[in-house]
Amino acid sequence: MSHTVRIEDTGLSYACAPRESLLEGLNRLGLRGIPTGCRGGGCGVCKIEVLAGQFQTRVMSRDHVSDDDVAHHRLLACRVYPASDLSLKVIGKLQRKVCNPASVR
Amino acid sequence: MALTGVLRPGHAQVRVLDLEESVRFYRDVLGLVETGRDAEGRVYFKCWDERDHNSYVIRQADRAGIDFFGFKVLDKATLDQLDADLQAYGLATERIPAGEMLETGERVRFTLPSGHVMELYADKTSIGNGLAEVNPAPWGPQREHGIAPVRLDHALLYGPNVAEVQKIFTEVLGFYLVERVLTPDGEGNVAIWLSCSHKVHDIAFAEYPEPGKLHHCSFLMESWEQVLRAGDIMSMNLVPVDIGPTRHGVTRGCTIYAWDPSGNRFETFMGGYQPYPDYGPLTWTFDNFGQGLDYPQRKLHETFLTVVS
Ligand code: FES
């Protein structure tokens, strides 16, 4: 069963299964030019903020995620798995790609 | 060419976010040989055809990246001489006692102006490659397990002050410049490939604002077929691939870039040519960087410039 992930400020949403990372689902959305980085929580290019919803995480590099980030759900999308419908905001290097309408195919 | 001074890349210590997941990846997918674990919990690996006890060491940490990269030098006298030369040049050095790493002698450690920690050492226990020293077979079962590269070949590191780093390697450590990519204005280098041997690179650096970053550690394959087989094994194991299989213009090496489970990039690599120290460097202009990175596709992949650990 998939959850629905909504990207605030864009009106876009996508389906994401609980065993899929938020980044995998985001990539399936077909936005051109999203920097898919290491997919291992190490490089930090996929930073997002979860605004609402339940999720699980796997370990991610503290170079890119501080305690304050964790407290405010500012996490790396490749290491976050949805456990309910979610809404998120793209921050960091992904932002200009996802939020720029020209990048929608 | 008589190899003296700095001989070759000897070891890299890389940080991982989940040790056991990473051990399974490096042992069973990349196909390195696990050779030991120490009291600190570090896990030691070598490539099948390397003879020294270890070349790639992983350590669990809360962030990815590289702790240090080490070169083996000819002997103890060379180690002492290079230590003195580095200090005379104005770099602080530190001695790490023998045995701090398993089966490894005393190390001389220093930090480059790019923020990377480098080491030199003369001794590491030779445990052989599993083949006989008299009338050896050309390969054994270890070559068939996973991707199974031949050796740790080089690393590409990202950080500031690449011009200063080049001076240290060429003026103190006896390396020579093999290839370079110019800055857009043509006045400096954005990336340099340095050799202490007959290889197209033993280490490489690219200019980057953040210090101490790892772009990739590279593992040598024996043939293009073996690089393609590595790509098959990556896909079978859902390893995230960055670029390739393709050929670099720079070095002419054939390559796949991919990431370990913690986001540390690695390369499976073969080929290149055999430069000598009297060759002048080959130069790429910035507008040809795409061909330098990916010759067939002529493409400067964005991740090459922006994704590091
Ligand atoms: S893609 Fe590298 S941290 Fe998510």
Write the layout of secondary structure elements.
The complex is a heterodimer of chains A (105) and B (309).
Chain A: E1 3-7, E2 12-16, H1 22-28, E3 47-52, E4 55-57, H2 67-71, E5 74-76, E6 80-82, E7 86-90, H3 95-99
Chain B: E1 6-16, H1 19-29, E2 33-37, E3 43-46, E4 56-60, E5 65-73, H2 76-89, E6 94-96, E7 107-111, E8 117-121, E9 151-159, H3 162-172, E10 176-182, E11 189-195, E12 203-207, E13 213-220, H4 224-236, E14 241-247, E15 253-259, E16 265-271, E17 282-284, H5 289-293, H6 302-306
Parallel strand pairs in B: 1-4, 5-8, 9-12, 10-17, 13-16
Antiparallel strand pairs in B: 1-5, 2-3, 3-4, 6-7, 7-8, 9-13, 10-11, 11-12, 14-15, 15-16
Bound molecules: FE2/S2 (inorganic) cluster (FES).
FE2/S2 (inorganic) cluster binds next to loops of chain A.
Kindly give the count of domains of chain B: 2
Uncertain runs of chain A: 101-105
**Which word captures the global form of chain A?**
globular
Count up the domains of chain A: 1
Spatial sequence of strands, sheet with the most strands of chain A: 2-1-7-3-5
Structural class of chain A: alpha+beta
CATH architecture assignment name of chain A: Roll
Order of H and E elements of chain A: EEHEEHEEEH
What is the top-level CATH class of chain A?
A: Alpha Beta
Count all strands of chain B and give the number.
17
Query: Within the CATH hierarchy, at the fold level, what is the topology of the largest domain in chain B?
Result: 2,3-Dihydroxybiphenyl 1,2-Dioxygenase, domain 1
- Give me the side-by-side strand order of the main sheet of chain B: 14-15-16-13-9-12-11-10-17
Order of helices and strands of chain B: EHEEEEHEEEEHEEEEHEEEEHH
| Gross morphology of chain B | globular
User: What is the CATH superfamily label of chain A?
Assistant: Beta-grasp domain
As a whole number of angstroms, the C-alpha radius of gyration of chain B is 18 Å
Q: Roughly what is the average pLDDT of chain B, rounded to an integer? A: 97
Question: First CA to last CA of chain B: what distance?
Answer: 36 Å
Protein name (chain B): Metapyrocatechase
Pfam family, one (chain B): Glyoxalase
EC number (chain B): 1.13.11.2
Domain VOC (chain B): 8-123, 151-271
